[in-house]
Design goal:
Length: about 675
């Protein structure tokens, strides 16, 4: 063994230019590898070895001056890998400890050159450009520590991204020689190209004991849920080709297939779909008339016509991503970058970062056996939804796929969220763009896109002809300090509203909107008159609420109710004149994954003006229908999103024996 590697303030020191005595050896090695890649067409020249890239900056990490470590033939070999491993069984969370930033600390082992007893390296490519970028990003991040005693997670400097370049046994022995290995406890390995011919295992074949695996081709058989992290297969084109973001909308082609090494059975079926649907489907393949090399990787052909790749992907609404020899395909990254909605057909494939990303918002997953029905399935998706998916696909690429840094930071954040769940990112933080860049968007998918709002809330009162109780509701609501506007939705087409002089005198704007049809869903329509972000939807008979109770809590989901309610729920509500409140609760619970918050004590419903004739809730069939609608809505949603809650939020001093004037909300529960 040789002297240890020097350290800087943020990680292993950058090693100087390659020494002359090693150049001949590495040039020869590179030539052999390059010929092998050309001969096999191995994954579009991925990954690129640092030693082989003349344009790669030489001030980066390099293995040339790293210590040489010989692996004795008798060195122990780790166990293959425990499929039962979970965070609570194979990971020592106590090593992470508590810190004010709720951030795990990651240690990167010093660079070493592992060789066997006769001096043959364990890897044919050394340190790849991709893995170097990954280690550099981690060592420049807040996760990194150069103090091994403070580390929660350990990352070997041995590059196992591409199994094709590794000697399996010797690589496993090298891992076992790491000073903190301890059967792989709290160690993380990154691998994007697992397995090898003929079976192509979906996880790294290197025996690794209990180490976590960030893998790029997991299947449901090899993925240890909640322990491993499914990562994308990085596409070199992400760094080499600049694809400007394209506005969502219809494209020249409806479906495009660009993969060149798909199974013949799939290509035959795609050709049949092409014959049936003509110009709507573009079926590309490799160009047989071009010489092999980097230039050919960026070209695709159809009947002699040459297309630039990946630019052509931007010309299609949907792009097919079929399984190849491996489940994980770099094509997925190219498709997302192009803002094309990926149609993923790879049975049992664990999608990248699926632990936190909602892929239903950015892709269509179709079983492989449904390939003949692909065109029909995609045609059934509304245009508006396709545009939303195009936006989300591009954003997923920018946030999580665009670089090795993005992939590495996302992986560490997922592990961090497991260890510090109370400080974990929310669903919205993982799946909603933090900054909206599109100039004209009419979709409620991302709540920040709702038009600019004014402070306070708008009270929307649905009424038919109960004038006395309507006026009582208006009078009480007008006392709420945060009220910005009153909007009365007049749902009676056979009777005009009262004259202006008869309405209660209030200090905020009051407007009456007459509807064209008597529908309960009108209470949730996003009227142009609503200029606030928060909206209170209330009926004209809810006279038991006090102004303090209304001030204490309110929410806004009208836009989603009107335009994004799934299935025929809104039509069902309008037809039965029932269950609009339950429908809203289904919608909010499904979006947020949270139970409602009760903000007032239970009180008996009071409506002295209501009779069995004009009161919807007094009809004998009313409660029966409400039971039916719960079953109906659960069927449409495909699940029961409603959650049981035993929590009630009360204001400070609510039940304490203090003078009323000292309480912020003294009039809660007083009726």
């Amino acid at each position: 063994m040789c002297a240890s590697v020097k350290y800087g303030s943020r990680g292993p020191a950058l090693i100087p230019r390659m020494k002359t005595k090693h150049r001949i050896y590495y040039i020869t090695l590179f030539s052999v590898v390059l010929l092998g890649l050309i001969a096999t067409g191995m994954f579009q020249f991925w990954p690129h070895s640092i030693e082989s890239s003349a344009e790669w900056s030489l001030d980066r990490r390099s293995v040339h001056d790293a210590p040489l470590v010989r692996i004795p033939m008798s060195s122990p070999i780790p166990e293959r890998g425990d499929l039962s491993c979970r965070m609570h069984t194979c990971f020592d969370v106590y090593r992470c400890g508590y810190n004010p930033k709720n951030k795990i600390k990651v240690y990167i082992y010093p660079l070493q050159r592992f060789v066997d007893e006769v001096g043959v390296p364990i890897s044919s490519t050394g340190l790849s450009r991709e893995y170097n970028d990954l280690l550099s990003a981690i060592s420049d991040s807040d996760f990194y520590t150069d103090d091994v005693t403070r580390a929660c997670l350990f990352i070997p400097s041995t590059d196992v991204l591409n199994q094709n370049s590794l000697r399996i046994r010797e690589t496993a022995q090298a891992l076992a020689m790491l000073p903190r290995w301890d059967k792989g406890m709290n160690h993380l390995l990154f691998n994007m190209l697992p397995g090898g011919p003929p079976d192509y295992n979906t996880a790294l074949d290197v025996p690794r004991d209990r180490a976590l695996l960030a893998g790029g081709g997991f299947s449901t058989w090899t993925y240890r849920q909640g322990y491993d992290v499914s990562i994308p297969v990085y596409s070199p084109l992400s760094a080499e080709v600049d694809l400007p973001e394209r506005q969502p909308g219809p494209r020249r082609y409806f479906i495009l297939s660009s993969q060149t090494a798909i199974h013949r059975e799939y290509r035959v079926e795609l050709e049949r779909l092409k014959e049936e649907n003509g110009e709507a489907l573009l079926l590309l393949d490799k160009c047989s008339n071009l010489s092999q090399g980097l230039a050919s990787v960026r070209k695709r052909c159809y009947k002699g016509q040459v297309y630039d790749y990946p630019q052509i992907l931007q010309e299609s609404s949907f792009c097919v991503v079929l399984r190849g020899a491996r489940l994980g395909q770099a094509t997925l990254s190219d498709v997302l970058q192009a803002g094309c909605v990926p149609v993923i057909m790879a049975d049992s494939y664990i999608l990248p970062f699926s632990e936190v990303l909602d892929w239903k918002r950015a892709s269509v997953v179709i079983p492989e056996e449904k390939l003949p029905e692909m065109y029909t399935i995609l045609k059934s998706i509304p245009h508006r939804q396709v545009e939303e998916m195009q936006r989300q696909a591009r954003w997923f690429w920018e946030a999580y796929f665009s670089s090795m840094k993005a992939i590495g930071m996302t992986t560490l954040q997922i592990i961090n969220d497991r260890i510090y769940p109370y400080a974990a990112r929310t669903y919205e933080e993982w799946n909603n763009p933090s900054v909206v860049k599109w100039s004209s968007v009419n979709s409620p998918l991302f709540l920040p896109l709702i038009p600019p709002r004014s402070p306070g809330f708008t009270a929307v009162v649905l009424t038919y002809d109960r004038i006395e109780s309507l006026f009582r509701v208006i009078t009480e609501i007008s006392k709420v300090p945060s009220l910005a506007k009153l909007l009365v939705v007049w749902n009676n087409q056979n009777k005009s509203p009262p004259e202006e002089s008869l309405w209660p005198k209030v200090t905020v704007p009051l407007k009456v909107v007459r509807t064209k049809e008597n529908k309960l869903s009108n209470r949730f329509f996003p009227f142009d008159e609503i200029e606030t972000e928060a909206v209170l939807a209330i009926d004209d008979d809810i006279i038991m609420l006090t102004s303090d109770e209304l001030q204490f809590g309110y929410e806004y989901f009208n836009y989603l109710y009107t335009y994004k309610m799934p299935g025929d729920i809104k039509n069902w509500v309008d037809a039965h004149m029932n269950c609009e409140d339950i429908a809203m609760n289904f919608l909010v619970a499904n979006i947020t994954g949270k139970a409602p918050i009760k903000v007032t004590p239970r009180k008996k419903f009071k409506c002295p003006e209501c009779t069995a004739i004009d009161g919807l809730s007094l009809d004998q069939t009313h409660m029966v229908e409400r039971s039916e609608c719960i079953n109906k809505f659960a069927s449409v949603f495909g699940t029961m999103p409603l959650k049981v809650v035993e929590h009630r939020a009360d204001p400070v001093l609510y039940k304490d024996d203090f003078p009323e004037k000292l309480k912020s909300f003294p009039n809660i529960g007083s009726l």
